[in-house]
Amino acid sequence: MLETKLTESGEVTLTREGYALRYPSRGVADLTSYVTDDDTLFVVTHMALASIRPETWRLHIGGLVARARTLTLADILQLPQREIVSVHECAGSPLTPKEPKRRVGNVVWCGARLRDVLDSCDLLPEAAFVWTQGLEWGEFAGLKDEPFVKDLPLAKALSPEVLLAVSMNGKPLTSDRGGPVRLVVPGWYGTNSVKWVGRISVSSTRAPGPYTTRFYNDITATGTKPVWEIAPECVIVSPGADAMVRANREFRITGWAWAEAGVSRVEVSVDGGRNWLAARVDAREGFGWQSFSIPVSLGPGKHTLSCRCFDANCQGQPQAHARNAIHSIELATTE
Ligand SMILES: Nc1nc2c(c(=O)[nH]1)N[C@H]1C(S)=C(S)[C@@H](COP(=O)(O)O)O[C@H]1N2
Ligand SMILES: [Mo]
Predict the structure, then answer these.
(1) Which string of b and e fits 223-244 if b means at least 16 CB within 10 Å?
(2) Which domains does the chain have, with CATH numbers?
(3) Confidence of residue 1 (pLDDT cuts 50, 70, 90)
(4) Is any atom of ligand 1 closer than 6 Å to the C-beta of 284?
(5) Ligand number with the minimum distance to the CA of 173
(6) Considering the entire predicted model, what is its pTM?
(7) Is the CB of 90 under 6 A from ligand 1?
(8) What is the atom index within ligand 1 of the atom nearest the CA of 168?
(9) Is the pLDDT of residue 128 over 70?
C-alpha cells in the first residue's frame, strides 16, 4: 500500500519507494536530439518517487527574511515566466562519486525566477545560503527519513537562470520530474535541482543534513568541495555502439559537450588517445549542451574513439577515476 501524508506543504503520495533510476536503454547513443524528450531523459531519486496534489501544494519561505511567505501554485504562475535551455546531469551515485555514469540530457525549463520569490520576502543582511527541501520521505544508504535538503550560496540563488520550474519541454512537470514545482539550477549538477520542493529557508550557513554534508562533497587536496558546478564533459553519440561503418569511407563523429562555464574546444582521438584532432563546436545557447562534429576515415579493424573538451577557463577532463572522465567507444569497421 503506497503511503499518503497530508504535510504542511500539501498532500503527498509516494508512488514508488526506495532509490529509483531510469536510463535510456542504449545510454548516450540514445541522445540523438538537441532537446532530450521526457522518455529519454534519466530519472533519479534517493528515497522515493512522490506525487503531489497540485491544488494542495504550498511553498513556505522563511528563515533570514523580513517577510515569511506561503505561496500556492497560482502565485508561482502569476510571476513572470522565464524559459531556459539547460543541460541536466546527475553527478552519479553519492556512494561512488568518482564513477562516470553519464546520466545526462538537455531540456527546456520554464517557471518563475527564484530571485523574484526571494526578493518578495526581503532578505536580511545575514542571508548567505538558500536551502530547499523536497517533500518525499523514506530510506537511503541506511538513513531513514532524512529530508532531501540542498543549499545554494546566495549569489547563485539570485542568478537569473535559477528557476522554480513548472514545466519541462513545454509540458507541465510530471510527478516523477518533481511536479508541480521543482528547483532548477542551470550549470550545476542535477542533485541541486530539488524536486517536489515544499520549503525554502534562508540561512547564514550551509545546510546540515546528509545530502549536503555526508554526500555530494568531493575530497580535494585542501579539504572538500561541494558538488555544485558541472565540470567539462563530452560524449560521443554517433557512431553508436552497434553502428556499421565502412573502412576507408568518410563518416562523422558527433556528440555533445558541456560545462558550467561553456565549452570552447572539443578534441577527438581515433587511435586510443595518442593523437587528438580539433572538432567543430557549435556556440552555446543558454546553459545548453553544444554539439561537436568531425569527419574522419578509418582503416579496417578495431578502433578506439574518444572525445575530450576544454571549458572557457581551459579546464579539461581527467583520463579516469572522475565523474567527468573521458568518454571512449570501440568501433570495428567493415570492409
Ligand atoms: N526531492 C528530491 N529532489 C531531487 C532528488 C531527490 O532524491 N529528491 N535527486 C536529485 C538528483 S541526484 C538528481 S540527478 C535530479 C534528477 O532529476 P530528474 O529525475 O528529473 O532527472 O534530481 C535531484 N532532485
Ligand atoms: Mo543525481
Answers:
(1) eeebbbbbbbbbbbbbbeeeee
(2) 4-226 (3.90.420.10), 233-334 (2.60.40.650)
(3) low
(4) no
(5) 1
(6) 0.98
(7) yes
(8) 20
(9) yes
